[in-house]
Amino acid sequence: MEIEVVTGTGEGATSLSAFDAALADAGIHNYNLVTLSSVIPEGAVVSVEGTHDREWDVGELVSVVLSENESTVSGETIAAGLGWAQADEGGVFFEATAESRTNVESLVTRGIETAKTNRPDWNWEPGIETEIAQHTVDQNGAAIVSAIYRPV
User: Fold this and answer.
1) 8 Å CB contact between 80 and 143
2) Please, are residues 69 and 137 in contact by the beta-carbon 8 Å criterion?
3) Which of 6, 54, 98, 128 stands the most exposed, by the fewest C-beta atoms within 10 Å?
4) 3-55: pLDDT as tens digits
5) Pairing assessment for the beta strands 129-136 and 141-151 based on DSSP bridges
6) Which residues contact 106 (CB under 8 A, 6 or more apart)?
7) What are the pLDDT digits (tens) for 84-123?
8) Can you point out the beta strands (E) in 12-140?
9) pTM: predicted TM-score of the whole model, two decimal places
């Protein structure tokens, strides 16, 4: 199984339209997203793609792990991110949001380290991967990072 990690940011007339614009920026706005918890199946390959460009049917149910951050405060910086680590047995994602890329990175790193501690018998690969989207809000802004599993 391949899991794509994509990012997006956007502005809109409302928070929801900003979120939709961020999904469009990531290439996943025409799907019905089904949110998963954060477990990576054994043998999965996680690749950072930036933007999803596969052609699945409009309205397709697509499994995702999603980190999202929206704001209506002009000039505010927002960030959303995913961190992940993998082991022979599988892996985990961790989602976080904050006011900066640096703070999101710190949160996801701590979250992944805790997830590893909760799975002490797994054979973890070294390191933690992260992908973060940051956006400075004009009127209504959003930032998202999503791990796309596949259509349901």
Assistant:
1) yes
2) no
3) 54
4) 999 999 999 999 999 999 999 999 999 999 999 999 999 999 999 998 998 88
5) unpaired
6) none
7) 999 999 999 999 999 999 999 999 999 999 999 999 999 9
8) 32-35, 39-40, 45-50, 61-71, 77-87, 90-98, 129-136
9) 0.94
